[in-house]
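User: Hello, can you help with two protein structures?

Assistant: Certainly.
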Amino acid sequence: MAEILKRKKALSVNPLKASQPMGGALATLGFNRAMPMLHGSQGCTAFAKVFFVRHFREPIPLQTTAMDQGSSVMGADENVVEGLKNIAEKSKPALITVLTTGLAETQGADVQRNVREFREKYPQYNDVAVVAVNTPDFSGCVETGYASTIAEIINVLVPDVEQAQTRPGNRQRQVNVLCSPMLTPGDIEALTDLIELFGLRPVFIPNVANSLDGSLTDEPFSPVTIGGALVSEMQTVGESKATLVIGPSMKKAAQILNKKTGVPEYYFDHLYGLQANDDFISALIEISGQDVAAKVERQRMQLQDAMLDTHFMLGQLRVALAADPDQVNGLAHLIQEMGGEVAAAVVPAAAPILADLPIDQVKIGDLEDLENLARQHKAQLLIGNSHAVDTAERLSVPILRAGFPQYDMIGGYQKTWVGYQGSRQALFDLANLVINFAHEEIPVYHSIYAQKPDNERERICH
């Protein structure tokens, strides 16, 4: 059991955390024809939009209630109601999420009441789903904001089993998949292919693979998301045969879904490495009743071979981790599975899974804490987002970019980490970094009997 070291500093130095509203916006962007609206100042939304655009390199739909000095003091209820009306009228979305910021929370905003007022004042927009979520950016991180938003979307949009008159298993080939924010669009694409190999149809909640995968479409500019999970499918998830829950942060959302529908759940902390993927494949066999495809068996053997090829580089390697709790947990298990050691681990916010990490200590802190711990424990490699690149340079160690945001490389958002193939590539990437940045080379040996220059031989003879 890991010891959790809480933060003691009065401020963050070189922050690791990205805020809860960004996590809520990311969850919203995984739905088709959706629009996140941040209840706060224009700067809050502009800052989040810059992060998303630099990470995904795509236009990102994001709106704001534009609180100013007056509404911050006197109240901004009208900003929310009229903001919802304008978005519903001009953009015609299927889903709008109202996400609070630190300013709105400090001001005392009640966004759930604001949504009810919007419904009463503008009943003509009742076909637009509106979900309000409290996501203050002075607490939590991307992961907690994302998880809270998915939980509230399920709570509002998924009908109770008695109300909908549905029964789990009516759709024998359909499975729900609740995805942690550690899953990239590339991860979800890989999982889609894997689940379909077992004759199942996955319904991802949310599905950023279809909306943030960087594909070009023939459609003209759209003010809302193109692609993603259909809001209408939230009406049918109660008929699925099972729910696959990937990431400990999604547990609350899964519990709400189970309570409303009765669909049985299968929990997976992560899908990094051999053992975790073996467990996932076993669940798919049980749900589908089908045998493993030869393609999947070959991918498993390829991962085993990669483990043999890379264990010389990764065994006893000291690694420093900086990411949200779900991802730190998955990476820590992958490193441990290869015989490596997590020398330092820093997360931006607390989570129940931290106590079960396969390491001695985990620090709730920032990148300054990571740098100090990594130097103290002589870390040889760092895994973190693009903000940690300067930290790695000061430590003179290589860095493998993971998490959000990644703005100094192309395609980081699309990288596949999960499954046998994703885990195999992660091991190759780690091993190549070790090889290319090795600092403990054996010095060149010069024999005393080697041929000497003539003047050197004469000096020795005399």
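That covers the first. Now for the second protein you mentioned:
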Amino acid sequence: MPKQKTQIEDLDQEFQDKLNLFSIQPVILQRYIESQARQIADALIEHRSSVKFSLPDKVVGELPNIDQPATIKVPENLRNQTVGSFLNRISRKDVRDDLRHLLNELEQSPDQAISLSASLMKFSAAHHLVHHVLPAGRTVEYKLESEETIPSVPKDDGELESAITQSTDAIAEEGNNESNRGELQVPFLPFARKFYLPQWISIDAEGKLLAGSLKEAEANLVSMQNYVNILHTASSLAPYMLADPEYRAKRYGMLGQLVNQGRALAHYKIKQIIETIKSRAAAGTLNRGLSLSLPYFDDQDLRIEETDFEVIPAGRILFVASFVVRAAREEAAKRIQDTRFNLSTRNHLLLGLKLLEDAFSN
């Protein structure tokens, strides 16, 4: 009985088929397809309300009863494609769903030239997103800790090489003040250089803020989220991109970094909340009630969320630190039974509540 192929093997084969299809196109045709595919890619990531693109006038593909690839003409009346309208712009509706639907419809066309053209457009657009829109980073390896689903703690492989000689370990700044100076390599901190893209590392392993401000740290997190979203956009357009080695490397590198920094930022914010509570308690301004929105990083949605709970009901009640301890424990008991979270997100949330509890325990 022949061995059944796995889904991963199917994706590998489909990716190779699309790569081979693109490679047999004449170079001038490849460049045309790439230029039109960039219009598609930009519309997907910029949430445009409309997009226009054109299929090539011909493609190279296999025909029935012919042993070698042949040139097939694309019908002139079907070359120009438009998605979206003026109404989309008014309603602020982007074209992503309609664009994907159109490309899938064209790819399923009984006209082989149309079908092949759409396949090439999808491949080239997805390839552009993965290989050209997103920067490449360092070679990294993350540890998978107990009860975790996403490796996010960088392995410590000893002394890192000098950032002065590693282009991925430093930011290149132009030496404007000295004509013969060239580029100055400004090295990242050693902790940041353990990650895929060090320029977006904002908080170290001890919870210290490395970024210039909390606002900058939040902006770095958004940049990492956008990076992962673009990868997801590419794979939703062409699922076989999951088999692309570049896609795999970029997703692994950025996903671990995003989870690590998302959790670190959530805990940093919790420590700020703790300091605010202590400061306001000392000033006597917490005697009319207290409710908290405690941040945590959801590693399913890949973003910081908040859990809301009441510490002291509204009214003239004197603030006592033990109220915070009790509220944190009660909230933890609720979240232990909450089925909306996966195990790793729940553990992260519980750790945040423990930080709060310990800060007000005697």
